[in-house]
Task: structure prediction
Amino acid sequence: MATIFQWSGKTAKGTIESGEMSAGTKDEVIAQLRRKNIVATIVNEKAKKAGKISFFGGGVNDKDIVVFTRQFATMIDAGLPLVQALDILSSQVENKTLSKTLQQVKVDVESGATYADALRKHPRVFTELYVNMVAAGEAGGILDTILNRLATYIEKAMKLKKKVKGAMVYPIVVSTIAVGVIAIIMIFVVPTFSKMFASLGGTLPLPTRVVVNLSDFIAGVGGLLTLIAITAFVIFIVQIRRTEKGKHAIDKILLKLPIFGPLINKVSVAKFTRTLGTLVSSGVPILDGLEITAKTSGNKVVEYAIMDVRKAVMGGKTLAEPITKAKVFPPMVTHMIAVGESTGALDSMLSKIADFYDDEVDASVSNLTAMMEPMLMVFLGGAVGFIVVAMYLPIFKLITLIK
Result:
């Protein structure tokens, strides 16, 4: 029976590659990698699925990693040996999953593995970006500096994610409440008026007929069919996003949306420049940095563009030239990257771009919230107001006839 193994190794060019492979034993994986001119350094059986997020506190979130990284950097800077620092932190951290992971890392380091190689065995806790920066820190003898830089990067990434979630959550919550209120009125309130109007006889005003017919549709089979259709559509989108081509197509559509598209683009630029700048400043080779940045971009359109840039850089071109041709990033970004390359300060220039676009995202989120709030209020008030007026029109007409 085949088992999935996670591997890491060096190519003939000296670059580090990693991935997954299905095989019967570790030896088979090593043999297959050798045929591809890759010298295997780590081959481990893939752990069972265990997501980072857990409703029962079993996952490891970004905040846990930031706290651990800061504490570990302080201990290394103070001169504590790696094993001793890991031993202290494994018993100190509150998260049980992280505690067990650190204990395993400590055992691997004691057995002679480097700290980066020990972390690489736990991809669901420590990302590829994290591991590669640690490897660069170990190689350069500046592990404490790299760890502090890593913690700062994760904190800024968390802040950016929080801003985007804030932009999305408000309109979704208000829209859900609005739809819920209208649905309750249409299903439970309108039918009561409808029965009363039917007993009175006569022809109802047009707005009242529209509301009554819509209420009958929602409360009857039509509402159920609509709910089934919406559910089926959501399931379809989820399934499509699980495929490479489907995710690329959806991400392409999202980038072209009139309101959210520019915001998504700014988030992508901020994430790309922040990640690449952090990796380059930490001593990670530019090609490895581009590959890691592409995988962590979170958008398939941006990922493909970065991988195309990587191929061009491998061919001897500068970083700015293929980024300009990619047409994913704004002209200002490409010009600033070109200046950074020519002056030899690419890492600091990327950090400046990231800081600028972090502020841009913040401003866009504020503007979006300010714009959406009155629009949603007008929609909710208008819809409820129309229903109320439509229901009272026959009553006004009846009062006039009585007079």
